[in-house]
């Protein structure tokens, strides 16, 4: 996604300017060609040498350099950029941009640059909340700029408030999202579920599973980078949540069902990568179950009745406008179980994996899956990093969505076409 992309990266004279160095470094590592432009005041905080060393490219600080080129540097840099990012964007530069001023390299380039603009404001919280700053941000957003709002946290002024420069991962995610707007999922809304559910036994214990959230998050990030508007419904996970998408937290299977039903209203596709518990404790104890308490049997054993949870995907079988992708984590007879699930839940695609196999399934960075298509095709994929598995799944979903777009009516499925159903 960032590989080979040309990024014009403006840095203003804010205290967060040093943090921009990390963003530039990560961009360079991701294969982006980063042209850094420092304002005069940025140079009071950081040096061109720092950024040039990290970007492996020249850094631009002045509009007045006699380059000898036919196209002035600011025009050339602006014209070739895929994205213009200004991070940190100071209150002063936001004001200059809002008014169309062009009194230095960065603001002149901003006017001359047809690429999308991403602004990352960072400043003391009164400065940020000042009506002038807010009005400038609104105006810039109206003109099409993407604003990544600052975070609440410890500010250089010593107080806690809004104005903090977001972390590198959040900025990179926003850049990917902005660059992905011309991707093959642009204009699509997708919902992904990730992680595992927790079914309470009592207030401190639960029945859970080993889902890490890795596969679901890989799917969500891939969709984001291809232009989709992504909502992730997240259960219990053991990895960091991605940025650049809407995240809904849930705990139990019933909560996940509720959240999914709410967020699919306008969605084009639902990919259920979460490991949802099939059963829940019928009556979770209100207080912690103690050893030797009345709940215990005479022989020290404890009885718990489990009841079946609803099948979220199967319940949505009537939602024909929604393309539905399921996951099947199996430990035996993968093909048979998967094919049966595909038919019984009337899915468009089922991704099956043998979770006891090495380098596959829960917590593993890679996954070896077989895709079961609604038309009966069975497509085994080689062991791949989860992000590549996600890519393959969205490739198939994109084709299905296109097919659906061009169809007026859904063709009836013939269950007999499934090999082992
Ligand atoms: C120590 C110090 C820290 C500053 N930090 C910020 C800041 O975080 N955000 C901001 O908008 N302005 C900050 N300023 C004010 C800007 O440096 C000032 O408005 C300057 O004119 C910005 O110029 P530029 O936008 O062309 O880079 C700071 C100033 C000083 C002296």
CATH class category of the largest domain: Alpha Beta
Count all strands and give the number.
Answer: 22
Strand percent estimate: 15-25%
- Main sheet: which strands, in order across? 13-12-9-14-17-18-20-21
Number of domains: 2
**Into which percent range does the helicity of residues fall?**
25-40%
Q: Determine the structural class based on helices, strands and strand pairing.
A: alpha/beta
At CATH's second level, what is the architecture of the largest domain?
Answer: 3-Layer(aba) Sandwich
CATH homologous superfamily classification of the largest domain: CoaB-like
| Radius of gyration based on Cα positions | 26 Å
Give the overall shape: globular
Distance between the termini: 39 Å
By CATH, the topology of the largest domain is Rossmann fold
For the biggest sheet, the summary is: 8 strands, mixed
User: What is the typical, i.e. mean, pLDDT?
Assistant: 92
Total of helices: 13
Ligands bound, unique: flavin mononucleotide
Instruction: Report low-confidence residues grouped into runs of 5 or more.
Output: none
């Amino acid at each position: 996604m960032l590989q080979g992309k040309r990024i014009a990266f403006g840095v203003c004279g804010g205290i967060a300017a040093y943090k921009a160095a990390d963003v530039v470094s990560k961009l360079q590592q991701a294969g982006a060609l980063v042209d850094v432009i420092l304002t005069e005041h940025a140079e009071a905080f950081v040096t061109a040498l720092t950024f040039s060393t990290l970007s492996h490219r020249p850094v631009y600080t002045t509009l007045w350099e006699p380059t000898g080129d036919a196209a002035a540097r600011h025009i050339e840099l602006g014209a070739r950029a895929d994205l213009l990012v200004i991070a940190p964007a100071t209150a002063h530069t936001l004001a200059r941009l809002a008014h169309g001023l062009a009194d230095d390299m960065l603001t002149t380039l901003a006017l001359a640059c047809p690429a999308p603009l991403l602004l990352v404001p960072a400043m003391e919280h009164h400065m940020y909340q000042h009506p002038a700053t807010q009005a400038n941000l609104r105006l810039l957003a109206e003109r099409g700029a993407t604003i990544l709002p600052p975070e609440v946290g410890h500010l250089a002024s010593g107080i806690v408030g809004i104005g903090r420069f977001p972390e590198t991962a959040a900025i990179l995610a926003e850049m990917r999202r902005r660059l992905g707007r011309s991707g093959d999922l642009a204009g699509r809304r997708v919902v992904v579920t990730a992680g595992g559910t927790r079914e309470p036994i009592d207030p401190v214990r639960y029945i859970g599973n080993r889902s890490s959230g890795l596969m679901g998050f890989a799917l969500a990030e891939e969709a984001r980078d291809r232009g989709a508007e992504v909502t992730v419904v997240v259960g219990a996970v053991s990895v960091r949540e991605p940025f650049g998408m809407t995240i809904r937290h849930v705990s139990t299977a019933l909560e996940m069902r509720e959240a999914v039903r709410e967020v699919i209203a306008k969605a084009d596709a639902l990919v259920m990568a979460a490991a949802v518990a099939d059963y829940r404790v019928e009556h979770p104890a209100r207080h912690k179950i103690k050893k030797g308490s009345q709940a215990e049997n005479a022989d020290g054993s404890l009885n718990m009745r489990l009841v079946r949870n609803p099948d979220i995907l199967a319940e949505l079988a009537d939602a024909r406008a929604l393309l539905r992708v399921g996951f099947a984590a199996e430990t035996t007879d993968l093909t048979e179980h998967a094919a049966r699930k595909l038919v019984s839940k009337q899915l468009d695609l089922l991704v099956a994996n043998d979770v006891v196999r090495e380098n596959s399934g829960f917590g593993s960075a890679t996954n070896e899956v077989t895709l079961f298509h609604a038309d009966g095709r069975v497509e085994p994929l080689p062991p791949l990093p989860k992000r590549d598995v996600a890519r393959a799944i969205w490739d198939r979903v994109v084709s299905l969505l296109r097919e659906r777009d061009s169809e007026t009516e859904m063709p009836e499925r013939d269950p007999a076409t499934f090999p082992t159903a």
